Amino acid sequence: MEMEKKKSKRTQGYTLIELIAVLAIMAILGTMLVSMLNMGVKFYRNANTTMENQSDARLAIAYITVKIRQNDVAGGIAVISERDSFNNPIEVLRINDASTPGNTFWIYYDANTDKLREQSGNTGFNPVLANGIEISELSYLKIEQFGANLRFRVKSMDNTVDLTQEITLRSP
Fold first, then answer.
1. Domain count for the chain
2. pLDDT of residue 7
């Protein structure tokens, strides 16, 4: 008879205290898992943002270099001082399109939106900065011309990339 009592007691299930203990352990493990997942997502977003910023800075350098190399003809490239729509002085890279006579590209940095932009056409530079095509996001762009040499410097939005490129024009 004593054996039957022990057997029947085992088949009754778990006690309330055992269930609460298991639920508490599962809640702790679940909380740890969710916090680790959130931390991983934050690390991923930070790394992704940094990579995008670095990519934008490299894109700006490559874009300007390619435009210069494609259109390097005598008197076709110059750095000119202009005024933006807020009457602030800006440096603009003026490139005469070698493939389409009369067409000109103006590459400039819009400090109000932190964008590298390009305008093109045959009517002249438009000081309304929002008219340009967006190339990339930057925190800084400086363009200088020293005779046949052009130097431009870009910084990524988070300032992790600071690139300088110097190009000697083949046809000054």
1. 1
2. 54
